[in-house]
Structure formats: structure tokens, C-alpha cells
Design goal:
The chain is about 40% helix and about 15% strand. It is of the alpha/beta class. About 40% of the residues are buried.
């Protein structure tokens, strides 16, 4: 079955399977992107803070596929939320990706950092407390600057990532262009059915990042669950393919990440899961969010107490101080 596309509220179409590039190593991602496009992918998901967009751009170039056939996403990092900094970030993404426009540009997180002297410093530190330097920039102002990038022709569609319903509704009050997409964490252990339905009912396309789960927090991944393996064996498919198609059947854009050509190709295979398999996967939901950067000290999803946030920030500071001490000791 060919990969379907969904229509965005901007009028453009987005392919429902895209190659994720988060955590892809700099020396791997160019080959992964080239391989994916040659295999048949037409959607590549990138971001400034992945620090590999230049390699993504080289992979796009090396693929030899005409730009008009591709759908390329980038994301505005937290250091560039001030309206006067947005165009700089867009221009840097275009330069790194070797493009003259972006198909989709997302606000990566609803959190703003102070921009450092080096615009590629992703986590500027506040010298007064050694914490990540979070500042207050109204999200409406950032959005207005992104709308201006659409008017200039540098971006075709704009959206958000890691936004809650409250944040989206807040943005709607002043937005001229409504968000086309919200890219959020969705996998078998964190399915977000009610939130997904609300967004789809309101014309927002939902994208799933970390659809197989991720292993940076030490939690079990959905793709390793015995039930997923059981379903895969029953259907003669791979566990990752089962999860990808479970999401596709929920009308969710999926962004699996791999740098292995065989897996990249396998992740593009689409098929229909039977009703019983869909129900079995739905039953795995634990409402377990994996990706919450508590070190920011911001209650992004409204799920943490002030005490929990404070503890996370202090733990991060202690870990950073230990790293500095180890680095200094190594020099000595």
C-alpha cells in the first residue's frame, strides 16, 4: 500500500510517514536521509536543536530527488522565541538544509530561553543561579513572527510541538494562521486518545514522535513489549511495523527514526491491522509520558508539582557540576 497523505489547514499535504532525525549521530544522518529518500520517503523531520541539519541537508541533496517532491520540517528552538530572532533561526535552517523554503516549521517547545552570544548554544546558563536561562516571551509574539515568515514565502505551513490543549487555545485567540500541526509524544504506553481526537476534531494534524518509545530514560519501549511481538508474529510483520501502522490507522503522522537502510525501508511498509490487534495495542496504554525535560524548571504539561520541578533542576545542576569537575580533573 502506498503511503497516504493528510491535508493540512494551509492547503498543503503532508506524507503520513516521515524519517525522524532526533538522536541520529552526525556521521550517520546524511546517509540515513539519502537512503530514506531513495527508498521512497518524501517526508523528513528535522530540528535546529538536533544539531545535524547540515547533514540532513547533504542527505537531501545527495538523494537527487526534486525538491518539489519532498516535505521538509524544521523547528524553532527555545533560544529564538523573541520575534526579532525568529527569522535568524529560519534562515539558519534554510542554509543548513540547503533549501529555499520549509514545508513545515514548528515551535519546538512552549518555553523560551535567553539567546547566548553563540546562537547555536542550545542551553544558555543563567550566571546568577547556574540554571538553564528561561525567560518570558509570550508565545503569541513568537507565533506572529512565524506568520510573517509564511507571508515572506520562507515557510509554507506552521505548527507547534509539545503543546497542550490550553496552550493551543491560548494561541488561537490572537493567531491569524491557526497551527496546522502539533507534534507530540505518542507510543503504545502513552496513547493520548482524548487529546488526539480533540485536535483532529479541530483541524490540527497530529504527529507522533518517539512512536516506538525511546531508551534515553531507561524505560521499557513499546516496540519491545511482548504483546507487540506477539501481534507481529501473528501477522508476519516486524514489531516496529505493527506500531507504525497502528498509528497510521488512527490518522496520526508517524516519525520513526532509524539509520539502518533495511529498517528504514521496513518502516515504510503499510498494511491494515485487524480490529483485534488495534484493541490489543490500545489496551497497553499506561499514560506514561517519557519525554519531559524537567531540567527546564517549567511545568510544560501541568503534570508536576513545584517541588518535583525544583528537585529536577537541582539534580541537573549537581550533574552538570560533576561533569565540570571531571573535565577539570582530566586536564590536570
Amino acid at each position: 500500500m502506498p503511503v497516504r497523505s493528510l491535508k493540512l489547514n494551509s492547503g498543503y499535504s503532508i506524507p503520513m510517514i516521515g524519517l525522524g532525525t532526533w538522536q541520529s549521530q552526525p556521521d550517520e544522518v546524511a546517509h540515513a536521509v539519502e537512503s530514506a529518500i531513495r527508498t521512497g520517503y518524501r517526508h523528513i523531520d528535522a530540528a535546529a536543536c538536533y544539531d545535524n541539519e547540515d547533514e540532513v541537508g547533504r542527505g537531501i541533496k545527495a538523494s537527487g530527488i526534486d525538491r518539489s517532491e519532498l516535505f521538509i520540517t524544521s523547528k524553532l528552538w527555545n533560544t529564538h522565541h523573541k520575534p526579532e530572532d525568529v527569522e535568524e533561526a529560519v534562515d539558519q535552517a534554510l542554509e543548513d538544509l540547503q533549501l529555499d523554503y520549509l514545508d513545515l516549521y514548528l515551535i519546538h517547545w512552549p518555553v523560551a530561553f535567553k539567546k547566548g552570544a553563540n546562537p547555536k548554544d542550545r542551553f544558555p546558563i543563567n550566571p546568577e543561579n547556574d540554571e538553564i536561562h528561561v525567560i518570558d516571551v509570550p508565545i503569541e509574539e513568537t507565533w506572529k513572527a512565524m506568520e510573517a515568515m509564511v507571508q515572506k514565502g520562507k515557510i509554507r505551513s506552521i505548527g507547534v510541538s509539545n503543546f497542550t490543549r490550553d496552550k493551543i487555545e491560548q494561541l488561537w485567540k490572537t493567531a491569524t494562521i491557526k497551527p496546522a500541526v502539533n507534534q507530540i509524544e505518542i507510543h503504545p504506553y502513552f496513547q493520548q486518545h482524548h487529546f488526539v481526537k480533540w485536535m483532529q476534531d479541530n483541524g490540527i494534524v497530529v504527529e507522533a514522535y518517539s512512536p516506538l518509545g525511546n531508551n534515553i530514560y531507561g524505560f521499557m519501549r513499546g516496540v519491545d513489549d511482548h504483546k507487540i511481538h506477539e501481534i507481529a508474529a501473528r501477522l508476519g510483520k516486524q514489531p516496529a511495523q505493527v506500531i507504525i501502522n497502528w498509528l497510521l490507522q488512527r490518522n496520526i503522522v508517524v516519525l520513526p527514526k532509524s539509520v539502518t537502510p533495511a529498517r528504514i525501508a521496513a518502516n515504510l511498509e503499510t498494511f491494515e491491522l485487524p480490529k483485534d490487534a488495534m484493541e490489543e495495542i490500545n489496551a497497553l496504554d499506561r499514560n506514561h509520558r517519557y519525554n519531559f525535560p524537567a531540567r527546564f524548571g517549567v511545568n510544560i504539561f501541568g503534570e508536576k508539582t513545584e517541588e518535583e520541578l525544583r528537585r529536577a533542576v537541582e539534580e541537573w545542576k549537581t550533574a552538570q557540576q560533576k561533569l565540570k569537575w571531571e573535565a577539570a580533573s582530566a586536564i590536570l
